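Query structure, 344 tokens:
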């Protein structure tokens, strides 16, 4: 680790990729992860599950601003000699890396390894919880015959929020006698608590959707009760077949990627979307309608009677053999989430 200056300083170093050849270890590494804390970073690494070329990445020191050294090791686990091996490495968008690639001269016998060294400029650590993904790819001839192998490593720092309520940042429901605090759509409008109650959405009561039992936020009207999604990481434990989210959209572009992290350090992603809370087709983005309320609250009071303002459900698949540790919501503020739960 060395203190880093401007982005240009990394290129000025003119560092060539270091390469070493070494016998392959007889041990097989496994992906591991431990709970992150506010002052430490933990990581998990994934590699191809099938026997073949193995690509591994060393940990990435995120204590920036600095230039961190990363080693990428490629092991020829195939029956043939590996030739024309080229290794590339990259991190988050905007993080400068030198060199851009390392070309390996000669060939690797079965069981032999090559380690390429890269340097990446790490910016100042961001406050709160962050997940950074790094990727290394090896291309080659011979070996296992696949032609390429890729590995990713995630480095986590900080602590996910304790639950979804800790992420509430939007007032989406108000009482018809006091509509002023509402601002679900950025224009001061909100759901009517009375009209939601009439269709079964009451504070703290269960809501069944897509096989999951969720709960309508148990908070008073006129207070924050939903998350305008911005990539928040939220703790959620359990096992099951799918993660179900209860919410609604603002505008017709309320969609994005949900990332689920498991306790073994692996992760999975899925795309969700909610129709606009009114007017969009009820099945837009593949969502499922949960409830329709009549009208909405405006800054001047209740109005728009006869127009439906709706709540939906959507889900992403889970690996039922793994235990969920936390969820990262979409980075799209038009996606509003009232609750989420795991369906059996």
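Result returned for the query:
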């Amino acid at each position: 680790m060395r203190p880093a200056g401007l982005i240009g300083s990394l290129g000025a170093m003119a560092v060539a990729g270091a390469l070493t050849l070494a016998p392959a270890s007889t041990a097989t590494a496994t992906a591991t992860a431990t709970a992150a804390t506010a002052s430490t970073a933990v990581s998990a690494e994934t590699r191809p599950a099938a026997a073949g070329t193995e690509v591994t990445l060393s940990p990435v020191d995120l204590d920036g601003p600095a230039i961190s050294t990363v080693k990428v090791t490629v092991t020829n686990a195939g029956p043939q000699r590996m030739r024309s091996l080229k290794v590339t490495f990259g991190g988050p968008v905007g993080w400068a890396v030198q060199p851009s690639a390392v070309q390996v001269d000669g060939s690797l016998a079965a069981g032999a390894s090559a380690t390429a060294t890269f340097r990446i400029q790490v910016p100042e650590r961001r406050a709160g919880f962050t997940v950074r993904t790094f990727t290394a790819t090896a291309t080659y001839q011979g070996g296992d015959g696949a032609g390429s192998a890729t590995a990713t490593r995630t480095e986590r720092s900080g602590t996910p929020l304790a639950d979804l309520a800790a992420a509430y940042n939007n007032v989406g429901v108000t009482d018809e006698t006091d509509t002023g605090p509402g601002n679900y759509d950025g224009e001061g409008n909100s759901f009517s608590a009375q009209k939601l109650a009439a269709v079964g959405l009451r504070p703290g009561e269960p809501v069944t959707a897509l096989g999951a039992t969720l709960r309508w936020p148990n908070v008073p009207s006129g207070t924050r009760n939903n998350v305008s999604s911005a990539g928040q990481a939220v703790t959620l434990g359990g096992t099951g077949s799918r993660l179900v989210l209860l919410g609604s959209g603002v505008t017709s572009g309320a969609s994005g990627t949900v990332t689920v992290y498991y306790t073994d350090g692996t992760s999975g992603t899925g795309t969700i979307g909610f129709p606009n809370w009114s007017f969009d087709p009820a099945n837009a983005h593949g969502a499922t309608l949960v409830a329709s309320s009549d009208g909405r609250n405006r800054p001047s009071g209740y109005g728009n009677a006869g127009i439906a303002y709706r709540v939906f459900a959507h889900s992403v698949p889970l690996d039922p053999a793994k235990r969920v540790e936390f969820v990262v919501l979409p980075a799209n503020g038009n996606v509003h989430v009232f609750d989420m739960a795991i369906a059996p």
